[in-house]
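Quick log. Single chain, no ligands specified.
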Amino acid sequence: MNWSGLESLVSGVNKYSTAFGRIWLSMVFVFRVLVFVVAAQRVWGDENKDFVCNTKQPGCTNVCYDHIFPISHIRLWALQLIFVTCPSLMVIAHVKYREGKDRKYVEVHQGSHLYANPGKKRGGLWWTYLLSLIFKAGFDSSFLYILYRIYHGYNLDRLSKCSLSPCPNTVDCFISRPTEKKIFMVFMVVTSAICILMCILEMIYLIGKRISKMKNIRNENQRLVFADQHELTTIAPPRSQYRRVDPTLTESQLSLNKREKTKERQKTTVL
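-> predicted structure:
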């Protein structure tokens, strides 16, 4: 399989990704595809040839091999990498659709653009990007679960027992290089788990950023509405023009105070 072609195709989504998306892409093509192509295929290349059972019964070794290895690790990981990288093509296809729509709009409206930046994660593209993250995390989780269920964990036993027909009795079967294969299997499982974590963190980042942006827009709208409602309100006079009055005084006492202040003003005027 030409993995370099898939890498060049999927790497186009890198410029539309966040920092978490770029880390995810590096993890996939450096620690998974590269290890898969360079090392893992060679390690598992002899699994059928060097699988040995202590019997000479014809067909027993093949039946036991099929029972112990229902699906090859290599083929399972190849399917996993294909399924995991395909959701990124959704984002590229959506951006290409926007660019084509924008070109048609420019031709009709003589230079004005429909999208200022077709690759900006707004509107439908934001939902497409979020959906691609859900698919990527879901596919990785599903394949980890399938691997766990088929092989009853992430371990390879050096010795396996088999008593299926046409084996005459319970026979012992041995796989080649079980420790090395176990190391590679654990490595692929750990890198898959890290990729799932990156997808979850990117989803949290996108949703949190969207909520924060919506709150800012809401606060700005409320501020504008408040400013419009209070635009023609009269300005209150300064506090220096107010005269404090004792609320406990009666009306007669208030009128008496007024007369005294009036007399004082008249005296000052005479002097």
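Strands lie at 52-53, 159-162, 171-174.
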